[in-house]
Write a structure and sequence with these properties.
By secondary structure, the chain is an alpha/beta fold. It has a single domain, classed as Vaccinia Virus protein VP39 (Rossmann fold), CATH 3.40.50. About 30% of the residues lie in helices and about 25% in strands. The chain contains eight helices and 13 strands. The structure holds S-adenosylmethionine and zinc ion (ZN). S-adenosylmethionine binds next to helix 3. GO terms for molecular function: 23S rRNA (guanine(745)-N(1))-methyltransferase activity. Pfam families: Methyltransf_25, Zn_ribbon_RlmA.
Length: about 270
């Protein structure tokens, strides 16, 4: 199975240093091993997706193991399905993707990680050569219809129609989203009235929801870890300098996590 050309949608053939389609559209492999399949005309900004700063904060925070129970829970679900072909959408710097590759050793033929952020993919590919990484948008997945057994999407946007197109009948989508109490205490520093995350379940036409798992645990963070957490969230832009200072000075910042993991089965 190969990538699709983002310009004409034919299959891309892998050559030593690039991918090329029958029409001659060519996409070079970067030295880190990833391929950039996001043509300029499909970009909505110069550097779409997470910035280097957000990505580095996320890497430091995830490397410290604070979200490991979420990764373990999804690994356990994936092991049950043993997908041959798996895609992680909005994979960021690859922490979860690499975890899936480890858990599925010997079960899965190929694992792809896709993100619109070039800097995140560069870091991911450099550290995790066991995964195929590409820069692309989840709104136009560079994969053929019905070509994937499973797709994971943790905290990342994606068009439902694209999921239905690429996942084969009987395949699964696993989503990870914030539960109502996720990062309540962090939000409490920024908002006078903390609103709980909405419990509304998204609809994924073409899929049937098969399993829901809610997991959460308390975290106790050192100042720099709490700063990294704030940096990797969408709340960062709201935080005034005194909030950053106060967080940095923390020695044991207590904060709750709350995640909802859902398994959706492709109909048909
Ligand atoms: C909140 S981060 C989650 C990253 C990773 N899954 C994790 O949980 O650590 C969201 C990711 O989605 C990516 N992203 C945003 N819009 C995207 C799009 N249209 N297509 C693909 N990735 C996108 C961002 O660059 C970022 O890496
Ligand atoms: Zn082409």
């Amino acid at each position: 199975m190969s990538y699709l050309c983002p310009l004409c949608h034919s299959s891309l053939a892998a050559e030593e240093k690039s991918f090329v389609c029958p029409q001659g559209h060519r996409f070079d492999k970067a030295k880190e091993g990833y391929v950039n399949l996001l043509p300029v005309q499909h970009k909505h900004s110069k550097d779409p997706g997470d910035s280097a700063e957000m990505m580095q904060a996320r890497r430091a925070f995830l490397d410290a193991g604070h979200y490991q129970p979420l990764r373990d829970a999804i690994c356990q679900i994936l092991t049950r399905f043993a997908p041959e072909k798996l895609l992680d959408i909005g994979c960021g710097e690859g922490y979860y993707t690499a975890g899936f590759a480890g858990a599925l050793t010997g079960l899965t033929e190929n694992i792809w990680g896709l993100d619109v952020s070039k800097v995140a993919i560069r870091y991911a590919a450099k550290r995790y050569p066991q995964v195929h990484f590409c820069v692309a948008s989840s709104h136009r997945l560079p994969f053929d219809d019905g070509s994937l057994d499973a797709v994971v999407r943790i905290f990342a946007p994606c068009k439902a129609e694209e999921l239905a197109r690429v996942v084969k009948p009987g395949g699964v989508v696993i989503t990870g989203t914030p539960g109502p109490r996720h990062l309540m205490q962090l939000k409490g520093l920024l908002y006078q009235d903390v609103l709980l995350h909405s419990e509304e379940v998204e609809s994924l036409p073409g899929f049937t929801q098969e399993q829901t798992l809610q997991i959460g645990w308390p975290m106790t963070l050192k100042g720099e870890e709490a700063v990294a957490l704030l940096q990797m969230t969408p709340f960062a832009w709201r935080a005034r300098p005194e909030i950053w200072e106060a967080l940095k000075a923390e020695t044991a910042f207590a904060c709750e996590t709350d995640f909802v993991v859902r398994v959706w089965r492709r109909e048909g």
